[in-house]
Amino acid sequence: MNLLAWPKGLVVAAVIAAVVMAGPVGQARASGRLRIALQTTGQRAAVAGGQLRLTVTGPRGTRLRVSARARRTAPHAPSLAPGAIVYGIRTTIGGAGWRRLALRLTPTGRRVLARCVSVRVILSARVLGRTRLAHRPGRGRAAVRSRRRAAVRTAWTERVLQRDPRRCPFAENPPSPTLALTGGVAQAPPVGAHGERTLVGAATRSITPPSSDFATHVGGYGDCQGCDKTNGTTRVTPGDDLRVRAVVVRRGSKAVVLATADLEGWFAGYKQGPNLGLLDLRKDVATDLSRPVSEGGQGLALGPQDVIVQSVHCHACPTVVGIWGPTNSRYLQFIYAQMRGVIADAAAQARPAALEWATSDIGYINDLVVGQANANEGWPLDGQLSILHATDTRTGRTIATYANVPAHGNIVHGPSAPEMSSEYFGASERWLEDHVGGVAVVGPGTLGDQTTPLQGVGGPNNSRPLTLSAIDSLGALVGATVYRALSQHPHSVTDPTLGGAETYLVLPFTNPALSGSDCQQAITQVVGIQIDRSCDPPYAIASTGLGVWFTTLRIGSVAVASEPGEAFPHVTFGVRRALSGAAVVFTPGQAQDQLGYYYEPWAFPTTFMYSADHNIFHASMALAEANAHAQLANGSALGFSVTPTLLDPTGNDFTRLTMPGIQVWAYPSPDGSTPPRDPTVQVSVYRAPARCTQDASQAFCSTGNSGDAGPVTVDFGDGSPPVTASTPKGGPTCCLDLRHTFPRPGDYEVTAKLEGGQSWTTTVHLTSPLLVSNSAHYPKPGTVFGSPGQAGGG
Questions:
Q1: CA–CA–CA angle 757, 374, 465 (5° rounding)
Q2: The pLDDT of residue 94
């Protein structure tokens, strides 16, 4: 055939027809098959354009519904599927047999694709109605019907979108941070005589109220007089999600469980009935995982003493304890079922793993010298950030990162918040999952008297808490500190020992108002506080005895000792001294129960010197010593060397009340939007007047605060001129946020000073805008403000 003899127009038409028929469109038309292809290749292009671009091919006139969802590429993807990421559309394939489409991203899609984590996009096109296929030659009407029934009614495809290399400096699917930053490899425990290996699994599920039937209350400050205790809420801060998370460590038939819930608190048992509290939950989990595999279990030899569950105690989280509103039993049942399910998910996903632990000093994020809210300035501090990290021995990728942070999640004044939030705990988990991988499980460590200076009430007309924007910043700081600790001083867990032990004690209920609010209706009406903790045995004995469970887990040389409430640092120090044979002692707070504050009995009268509520919400003066002594029995049962100990009564400096306070540190970029080579970070300065001159009613960081500690001068330690800043008009008096560009990555001594001479120095470790951490120089190192930090001692 001589194309040169054809008219020019016919030649062009013939070439186009040949290309079309030879390509996917032509193949689809020839075969009558439905196909879909994604043109967008990277997350950056998708977010910039706000859409996914794709092509659909198939028979002419086919009516379709096209949609897209996403899954992360990690092995635990089914538990972390963000779901639909675009607004689905209906369309019809035209006469050409193909159609180009642009699917608009949903807010969830924008958020998922903007994060520094690999995402697998799954496109689907579903035929609507009885679309008539194009007629093709065949042997009669029966053959046509047969082909119509066999035609593909749904087409799908998937693609892993590339992350933005300019905004996400970490490698795709990053392995352990130890591998990424130091080249070291965590050692796996040796294989046992029967071939047992250490297996680790982790999972997470949402506990955001799914409908108005599950509406709950937000609380955590005082008794919330004047709060709405009737309706509750289901609203959650955009981009946030309330979750339960779990890590399961297995070896042979032995296993231990560490789990957290984004709740203000969770009791061991409830007045509303069984199968709602943590004791029944732990028993049910043990039963579930001990069933044979053939019956849906894991065949483990697990008991309730092998399970530690804690609430993160954030004050913008849902509360299921009463006090701030009646507990919604339906929501509590939902949480219970989700926690039970997520632990089963984690156990089922367990795979060969190497474990390592690390600690870091992060005590400077507490209200050390800034007199606000629940801070008793001048009391000792526990600064130990405790970290357990598991990596897949086959791929080197992170399976789970578990961490205890010794600071309250009370950044947001819950009763003033129009929406719920997992606060900095959730933000740090999202940061770690984006930059380290795997499932992050972050809960509180020591809680009593350990509050951040970021607390705040609502903005104008209580429209939005002033400090809500600080949550992502503090979460990124916690995440970056975990990353740095694992990269610089990790310790491999090579001891194969695994197990748990538990001590149950009945302690005297020494707070009549609190015990009466719980167990005596007459006192409840007078005090005005309704508490939902069960008053029946074994939780309480005749309204005068308090049933308490103290649990200790052993993971190799690591001890994890529960604190069933908000233990003060003196208690934690005593627990660590008692478990002297452990390489490191984790102390998860609000674990197994929520029994309020507890501290050494001799400290009780001094709590009246502060505007905090430590003298109100304490259950038993015997709880502090009992916690330390119970760990002696647990530690011995687990094979640890133990040391009898008394709580040290020294270390309090009550003159701190008379002095203004100042603290300063730097944050990493919370969302990764800063280019990696631009070392611009946020430096925040927190200040407050002396507590004795500050109006107790203005004890939160808010506009209109009657106390202002005055201007502050900041020297960034890089040769640039010092900056003097004052409270902006209408802004919060306690906090100054400064943006500063350091000349290059490195360590910088940043000092902030008040006019009266009080100062605070911190070393800012700047690796990149995403990896900023701090080392604080406390006002009186080694004494009242000394933080155990990495040493892990008292």
A1: 90
A2: 85
pLDDT interval class at 86 (50, 70, 90): confident
* pLDDT the model gives residue 221: 63
Q: Rounded to whole angstroms, how far apart are CA atoms 399 and 754?
A: 45
226, pLDDT greater than 90? no
354: tokens are: 């190497």
Lowest mean pLDDT among 272-276, 543-547, 700-704: 700-704
> What size, in residues, is the chain?
794
Query: What is the distance in angstroms between the CA of the first residue and the CA of the last residue of the chain?
Result: 93
- Residues 6 or more apart whose Cβ sits within 8 Å of residue 407: 362, 365, 366, 444, 445, 450, 451, 452
SS3 778: coil
Torsion of CA 23, 26, 30, 31, to 10 degrees: 60
Per-residue pLDDT of 37-69, as tens digits, reads 888 888 888 888 889 999 998 888 888 899 888
485 or 188: which leads in pLDDT:
485
pLDDT at 530: 79
Task: Give CA separation, 548 vs 279, 503, 545, 594, in Å.
Answer: 10, 8, 10, 10
Q: How confident is the model at residue 174 (pLDDT cuts 50, 70, 90)?
A: very low
- How would DSSP label each residue in 704-766? T-S-----EEEE-SSSSPPEEE-PPTTS-SSEEEEEEE-SSSEEEEEEEEETTS-EEEEEEEE
Per DSSP, the residues of 255-296 read: EEEEEEESSS---SSBTTBSSSSHHHHHHHHHHHHHS-GGGT
CA atoms within 13 A on the CB side of 390: 27
Question: What is the structure's pLDDT at 417?
Answer: 64
Q: What angle do CA 691, 694, 696 make, to 5 degrees?
A: 95
DSSP 183: -
Q: Which two tokens stand for residue 262?
A: 């984004």
pLDDT band with cut points at 50, 70 and 90 for residue 747: very high
Question: Model's pTM, two decimal places?
Answer: 0.78
| Distances, alpha carbon 529 to alpha carbons 517, 535, 537, 599, in Å | 6, 15, 22, 23
Asked whether the predicted pLDDT for residue 87 surpasses 70, the reply is yes
Q: ∠ CA 515-518-523 to the nearest 5 degrees?
A: 75
At 625, the pLDDT band (50, 70, 90 cuts) reads very high
Task: Please state which of the ranges 336-350, 505-519, 555-569, 763-777 shows the lowest mean pLDDT.
Answer: 505-519
State both tokens at 224.
Answer: 């919330």
pLDDT of residue 229: 61
Nearest to 587 by CA among 308, 376, 773, 251: 308
Residue-wise burial string across 339-364, b where 16 or more C-beta atoms lie within 10 A, e elsewhere: bbbbbbbbbebbbebbbbbbbbbbbb
Give the residue among 131, 198, 220, 91 at the shortest CA–CA distance from 556.
198
Contact call for residues 765 and 181 (beta carbons, < 8 A): no
What is the enclosing helix (H) or strand (E) of 553?
strand 545-555
What is the C-alpha to C-alpha distance for residues 622 and 631, in angstroms, rounded to an integer? 15
Residue 55 token pair: 């092509």
Q: Which residue has the tokens 């509180």?
A: 444
Cβ neighbours, 10 Å, residue 156: 14
3-state DSSP: the chain helix, strand, coil percent, rounded to 5? 25, 30, 45
Q: Are 712 and 685 in contact (CB under 8 A)?
A: yes
